[in-house]
Amino acid sequence: MVNPGRAQKIAEIGEALHRSGCAPYKIEKYVQHYARKLGVTVVVQATPTSVSFQFPEEDNQILMRRMDPAGIDLGLLARTIIRIHRDDDTHIGYVPYPTWLTALAHISIPPIFLVLVGSSLQAIGFAAILGVLVWICQQICQGERANFVEFLSALIVGITVAAISAGGAEVPVWGLCIAAIVLFVPGLSIANSLECLAFNDLISGTSLFTQAMFVFTKLFIGIFIGLNIGETIFGAGLHAPNVNEVIWWWPVVALPVFSFALGIIFNARPVDIALALPVTALGLWGPVWLGFGAGWITGTWVTAACITLYGTWLAKKMNLTGAIYIMPGILLLVPGSRVLFGATQSLFNESLMPVQGVGLSAFLMFAAIVAGQITALSLYSQKNRNLVS
């Protein structure tokens, strides 16, 4: 007979893992592992929008939880996994960073992103202003309006950039828009969907992939409509090519700041932010550095393998899950912002990154990341992957 209190604890663990952005198949493994430590047999089925718990020893009692699509809370994910390993009754609380620090992190991401990829000083300055507008949109679109935040932010950014361009500023219009909304790129959803598909969790993988494509659609059409509205109101401006005016050592300084800002936004623990710094560098520059003359698709495969290997190895050392350390690199590596780069290059002949054809082979990017993940995970035995990598 299952104690109702134990059943509730098991359900609470599953819900916390789901809210924090854990991949569905990993939720099932973690919950079953936790239940075994409590001496309870449970069958778990997790999807991107629900978690179900069946207790065979309790006349097949079933608990079903309908969940909202997961956000990203790396701190909650880490604390939940720590609770699983410790098997204690510590409350899984929410410990956010101060509001002013979170706001500063949101505002700093667009200009730092342009510093990392290389852009003009004028564009970098305007990116900080756009970061403020995006932060305001996030404060407006909360609760039931949360699904509107990506489209509204992209729309406001598009109108504002059109006004800036019409005012005579020579900025890469689409590149500036992309930098402003890069945080909305569903990097973790893409990573989880590819991982689920790679391990034959087809329902969850397909659902997460569709969710990510929906976000991409809102971002792209929001920018497109915003630019058209802005040009109608303020007049057509110049779509200037991107010019790299960044001094060589700026990206070296900007990279840890970018990683720290991402960690604050996703509520990661300071120790995890520091440990994830190498994957941020790999995610940004790996496809170019690690191509070894064979092209950026090959570089993406090698980079994905290196990021997954590092994140999985470190997760084993820390008794956590690899997503906590892989996430920052995946945000820049997956066909997220690069899909938008490719769209602008195809439709408007405007490229932000100094890689020929970036984004034009989105399928190859997906395939390279899947191959990289499989390559890395295959190096770990089934015993090591049994709990979760």
UniProtKB/TrEMBL annotation:
Domain Threonine/serine exporter-like N-terminal: from-to ranges: 10-79, 96-229
GO molecular function, one term: transmembrane transporter activity
Membrane spanning stretches: 112-136, 148-167, 173-194, 206-227, 247-266, 273-290, 296-315, 322-341, 361-380
A Pfam cross-reference name: ThrE
Domain of life of the native organism: Bacteria
Keywords for the protein's UniProt record, in alphabetical order: Membrane, Transmembrane, Transmembrane helix
Family affiliation: Belongs to the ThrE exporter (TC 2.A.79) family.
UniProt protein name: Threonine/serine exporter family protein
Organism lineage: Bacteria, Pseudomonadati, Pseudomonadota, Alphaproteobacteria, Rhodobacterales
